[in-house]
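User: Show me a protein chain along with its predicted structure.
Assistant: Here is one chain, sequence first, then structure tokens.
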Amino acid sequence: MEANELFISLVQKDIIWEDKTENLRQYSRILADLDGSSDLALLPEMFSTGFSTDPDPLAETMEGTTVGWMKKTAAETGNCIAGSLIIREEGCFYNRAVWCDPSGSLSWYDKRHLFRMAGEEATFSQGFNRTIVKLHGWRICLQVCYDLRFPVWSRNRGDYDLLVYLSNWPAARSDVWNTLLRARAIENQCYVAGVNRTGIDGNNIVYQGESMVIDPKGQIVGKAETTQESTTTIRLSLLGLHEFRTKFPVWKDWDDFKVMSDE
């Protein structure tokens, strides 16, 4: 592998509703099959339970079963792993994107934009800070599902190369998913990876996957089969990204404004 390359795997799965044990068992098999072919495995939003807005019976702490599984699996496979889950902390519930590297080191991002059309804002607390992690020279910004609709929050300030969306995005809004992933890549001159689930959840919401990676020109460089469970691994080039930013420096004309915060 060249020093500037990154191999990411989009794990597109039919999440078994609120069955952590079976979901984690299946993810263990999927990630073991990567067998050193990837640097980073991206899992969907609420990957161990499905997207539930009844967090109390499902919530864990950062010392709980699912984060423990992430640490163990990352160590065994040598992959970084990122996915969101329901975390209870200081009396609040968070839809938290957790990043775990093979050493067991953790970073996390709490979903900023809570999906009010499903009542998520009534039971979860929003996050206030963006999180950017580093891997093999890449700067990676973590976001969760509904965040995709809000370009100010994801605006590139010259601080990331890859923007990641961990999602449970319904099939009914497939066109929006495809359009906004491309828009975020073009406007931020970055790669964008969106990983989504398939199947039908406990609320009878249908998902068709369409996990994909978009390059900074807005072109799809890797995409999973629609409706099918699959793991799609894509090679990204940091050198290619830098060359494009140099040749076509849109970033030099980005508007200089601050992201609004409730802090």
